[in-house]
Amino acid sequence: MIDLKTKKIAVLMGGLSAEREISLVTGKSVFEAMLRKGLNAVAIDVDRNIARRLLENEIDLAFIALHGTFGEDGSIQGLLECLKIPYTGAGVLGSALAYDKIATKETLKYHGVPTADYQAIAKKKRGETRREIDFPLVVKPSAQGSTIGVSIVGRESGWEPALDAAFQYGDEVLVERFVEGRLVAIGMRGDRCLPIVHIRPKSGFYDYEAKYTPGKTEYICPADLSAEEIGRCEDVGKRVVQALRARGFPRIDAIVDKEGVPYVLELNTIPGMTPTSLLPRAARQAGLGFEDLVMEILRTAQLDREG
Ligand SMILES: Nc1ncnc2c1ncn2[C@@H]1O[C@H](COP(=O)(O)OP(=O)(O)O)[C@@H](O)[C@H]1O
Ligand SMILES: [Mg+2]
Q: What average pLDDT does this structure show over 51-73?
C-alpha cells in the first residue's frame, strides 16, 4: 500500500462558487484531520492562480474540498488531469454529469433508475415554454447545490417567482414533480452503501438554513427504513454510481415514498465533510471515524492512478 506520509497533499478549498463558505468549513476539517494523521498537507484557497500554486508547492496529490461551480463540475478535475496530479472524487466526466441535474436526470432515466418526472427549461426559451408538471412541483437551478435557488411550488401564483429565483443561478432550470416521502442520504463507499441517514428538517423543507444551522434538522442513522426499503436503496445506490461514473465516497440524495421506492434527486460527488456532515456521520456508523475516512478517500485517488 502507498505510504501517504511520503506525499505532499493539497486540500483545495474555498473557491468562488455560491458554496464558498461551506467549502471552507469542509476544507478546514479535512486539513486538520490530515495534520492529526501526520500527513504533509497544505491548505489552498483556490483562485485563478491555482495551477501555479500547485506546481510551486510541488503537490503530489489533491484532496478536492470544493463545492459548486469550478470545484464539483469537472473544471478543477480537468486542470488536475492536465497537471498530472491525482485527485479525490469523480473524474471529469463523472463530475460534469452529476453536477448538471438535467444531465443527471437524463442519464438516470436511460438506466431505469427511479427519479421523479421532470421538465428542463432554458432561459432563452422561457417565454414560449409551457409548464408540463402538475403542482406541487419543485423548481431548481440545473447546476447548483446547498438548496440555493430551490423552491417548492404548490400553486400557479408561485410558478413565475420560482423560475425567477432559479434562473438567478444559471441558464437552465429543472422542474420536478414534488415527491412526498422520507428524505434520505445514501453515502457510498465505492459501489457499496454506507448506513443510510434519514433527514428530518423541523421546518419540513431541507433548505440552506436547515442544512447548516445546528438543531434545525434531526438526523436518524441508521435510517428507520424497512429491510426491503434498505435493500432497494442499496440497489439504487449501486446503479446510480455506475450510471454517473462516480468514484470514491459520493452521496446520493433520494426520497423514499410511501410505496418504498427511492426516487433519486441527485448525486453529490464532493459531499460536505465536516465531522457532523451526512457522509462522515454514515461512515462513523459503519465504524469508520473521520480521520480514517479522510485517509480512505485519499487512497481512492491514489488507487485510481497507480492501482
Ligand atoms: N422532487 C422533489 N420532491 C420533494 N422535495 C425535493 C425535490 N427535489 C428537491 N427537494 C428538496 O430540496 C432539497 C434540495 O434539492 P436537491 O435536488 O438535493 O438539490 P441541492 O441539494 O443540490 O440544492 C432536497 O434535499 C429536498 O429537501
Ligand atoms: Mg441535495
A: 97
Residues 6+ apart with CB under 8 A from 132: 119, 175
Phi and psi of 176, rounded to 5°?
-130, 145
Query: 255 CB under 6 A from ligand 1?
Result: yes
CATH of 97-114+180-269, one of 3.40.50.150, 1.20.120.420, 3.30.470.20, 2.60.40.10: 3.30.470.20
- Burial of 180: CB neighbours in 10 Å, binned 0-12, 13-18, 19+: exposed
Q: Please tell me which residue in 72, 100, 176, 253 is annotated as part of the active site.
A: 253
Closest ligand to C-alpha of residue 17 is 1
In contact, 18 and 49? CB cutoff 8 Å? no
pTM score over 0.85: yes
143, three cell numbers: 447546476
Q: Is 306 a catalytic residue?
A: no
- Confidence band of 306 (pLDDT split at 50, 70, 90): very low
Which of 23, 29, 146, 151 is flagged as catalytic?
A: 146
CATH class of 118-177: alpha beta
With a CB cutoff of 8 Å and minimum separation 6, the contacts of 26 are: 13, 65, 67, 272, 273, 274, 277
Interval 116-140: pLDDT, tens: 999 999 999 999 999 999 999 999 9
C-beta of residue 182 within 8 angstroms of C-beta of residue 198: yes
Residue 307's pLDDT is what? 37
Give the list of residues 6+ apart from residue 49 with CB closer than 8 angstroms, or none.
none
- 40 counts as catalytic: no
